[in-house]
């Protein structure tokens, strides 16, 4: 059954609204009024509780001398995320384990140079079209657009210079639910072959409930495909700590979109029943990863799009449960919810140990997994898939929540 092509990206604008713009450090203190009585001596204080907010520091320079920044977002429990304005990349994310110890659960580097040199999209926002468009072309309103092919004959994650390789404008913002950073860019008409000038804003909010909320808002002046997602590589045991085979995954999906050679979808929505892609009950990621099922051979492991089960009666602009993953040794858990109809679950099959990360450890094959909430790959060429075409006057809006916790 074809699913509705009308799954919109319609979050109420109010849900995305930010309270104030242009604040460089959200940490603030109220000055005493000029006529206030002299302050009483301050008693000795206990070690300071982590101060929620956003601070900025240098992340190095690009080859042309442009300075790149990194912003540190901290919540009330000391959970900390760092993101740079180069590629809107999340460079670190420290969350507690079952003993309360913070550990960095995303792969990445310490300086911008390393991202420029060699990065398989670590932590970046990918677009204008996350994942693949077959043959690097599509036809819209009778016109065929040729895109940049950067993955054999196909285009992947926006082309040669996708959003992961652009410098974004970063602005710390105040939101009622936590520390937030807003990142914006303009992608010109014709960039990588895509039609229309696209203005995109991505807001990262690190909430005091230990969730990372990612809001996407885009506008175009011509009809164009848009499919933007976050490409963090997670290892809940810690970045660089072995493989993710022992993580236990549950994906709330009865169906997936099978692929052919080159990882381009065939156009079917197939049942996961009886395949290694059936994660409807929690299963170790490594349990069936070496299966000879044709889809696993094509992907070299998991590298597929699952079709999220949409709760009956729930509007398409609401957050649907996507997946839950746990790491038994640390107890860390990650739950993902999204307004997107699909998720690319990719198990780092192309990592091979040649990239050495921020704590000097090699990033080995299957040393991390990505959870890329998205519309389906190759949608512009697949009439049965929900549409990814965004038109002038109808904004692209999308939200995904990554909620961190512990199983004790
Ligand atoms: C894709 C993989 C690709 C990886 C890039 C994933 O989103 O599905 O096929 O190799 O990104 O590193």
Describe this entry's structure for a reader:
The protein is mainly beta. It is built from three helices and 28 strands. It has helices at residues 13-16, 112-117, 294-299, and strands at 53-61, 67-74, 80-84, 90-96, 102-104, 124-126, 132-133, 137-140, 143-146, 155-156, 169-175, 178-187, 198-207, 211-220, 224-225, 229-231, 233-234, 248-251, 255-257, 270-271, 283-284, 303-307, 320-326, 332-338, 342-346, 369-374, 389-390, 396-406. Strands 11-12-13-14-28-24-23-18-21 form a nine-stranded antiparallel sheet, with no helix packed on it. A six-stranded antiparallel sheet has the order 17-26-25-22-19-20, with no helix packed on it. Strands 1-2-3-4-5 form a five-stranded antiparallel sheet, with no helix packed on it. A hairpin with a 5-residue loop joins strand 2 (67-74) and strand 3 (80-84). The chain is globular, with a radius of gyration of 21 Å. The two termini are 41 Å apart. Residues 1-40 have low confidence and may be disordered. It binds beta-D-glucopyranose. Beta-D-glucopyranose (BGC) binds next to strand 25 and strand 26. Residues 120-121, 131, 263, 303, 344, 346, 350, 370, 372 line the site of beta-D-glucopyranose.
């Amino acid at each position: 059954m074809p699913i509705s092509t009308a799954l919109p990206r319609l979050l109420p604008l109010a849900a995305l609204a930010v309270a104030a713009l242009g604040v460089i450090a959200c940490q603030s203190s109220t000055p005493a009024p000029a006529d206030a009585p002299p302050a009483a001596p301050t008693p000795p204080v206990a070690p300071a509780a982590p101060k929620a907010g956003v601070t900025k520091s240098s992340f190095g320079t690009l080859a042309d001398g442009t300075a790149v920044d990194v912003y540190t977002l901290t919540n009330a429990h000391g959970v900390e995320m760092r993101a740079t304005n180069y590629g809107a990349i999340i460079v670190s994310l420290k969350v507690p384990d079952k003993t309360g110890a913070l550990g960095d659960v995303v792969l990445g580097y310490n300086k911008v140079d390393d991202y420029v040199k060699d990065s398989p999209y670590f932590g970046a926002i990918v677009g204008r079209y996350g994942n693949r468009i077959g043959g690097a072309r599509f036809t819209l309103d009778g016109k065929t657009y040729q895109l940049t092919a950067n993955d054999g004959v196909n285009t992947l994650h926006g082309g040669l210079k996708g959003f992961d390789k652009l410098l974004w404008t970063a602005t710390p913002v105040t939101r009622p639910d936590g520390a937030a950073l807003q990142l914006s860019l303009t992608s010109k008409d014709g960039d990588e072959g895509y039609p229309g000038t696209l203005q995109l804003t991505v807001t990262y909010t690190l909430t005091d409930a230990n969730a990372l909320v990612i809001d996407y808002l885009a506008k175009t002046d011509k009809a164009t495909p848009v499919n933007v997602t976050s490409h963090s590589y997670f290892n809940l045991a810690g970045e660089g700590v072995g493989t993710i085979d022992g993580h236990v995954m549950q994906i709330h999906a009865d169906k997936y979109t099978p692929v052919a050679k080159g990882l381009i979808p065939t156009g079917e929505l197939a049942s996961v029943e009886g395949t290694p892609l059936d994660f409807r009950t929690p299963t170790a990621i490594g349990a069936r990863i070496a299966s000879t099922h044709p889809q696993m051979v094509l992907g070299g492991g998991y590298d597929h799009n699952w079709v999220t089960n949409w709760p009956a009666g729930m509007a398409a602009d609401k957050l649907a449960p996507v997946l839950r993953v746990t790491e038994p040794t640390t107890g860390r858990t990650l739950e993902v919810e999204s307004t997107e109809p699909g998720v690319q679950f990719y198990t780092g099959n192309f990592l091979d140990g040649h990239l050495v990360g921020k704590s000097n450890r090699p990033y080995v094959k299957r040393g991390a997994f990505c959870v890329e909430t998205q519309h389906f790959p190759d949608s512009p060429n697949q009439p049965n898939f929900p549409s990814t075409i965004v038109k002038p006057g109808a904004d692209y809006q999308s939200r995904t929540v990554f909620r961190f916790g512990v199983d004790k």
